[in-house]
Amino acid sequence: MTGLGAYPMEGWLWPAVVRDGVARWLRLVAADAELAPYLIGVDRARLAGHLALTLTAALGEPAGGIARPAAGAWRGLGLTEAQHRRVVDYLAGVLRALDVPGGAVAAARRAFADEAGS
Hints:
118 residues; disordered N terminus; globular; mainly alpha
């Protein structure tokens, strides 16, 4: 995936949206009683970095020269398909709360759904 189409940059500070979005997203996952155990022992800074790269690419922005971030950050955690869908739903909710355009939210959902092979 080289991005799913660029979204208008005017008025958007994508790096700040990505950084804030990923931080909020991880807080939601960590607060979910069923998902939190999957984060035990996980290097959250590294996970956040990977998620930020994937989200940046999904939004159609340059990801530091990376055309496609490394294979799925969530895949190796052993989540069920239903749990993975909930993680992606959290992302969509966070992006909507940040007033990210609907097309960009849809692109992000596809990127993280694709990452899990679903």
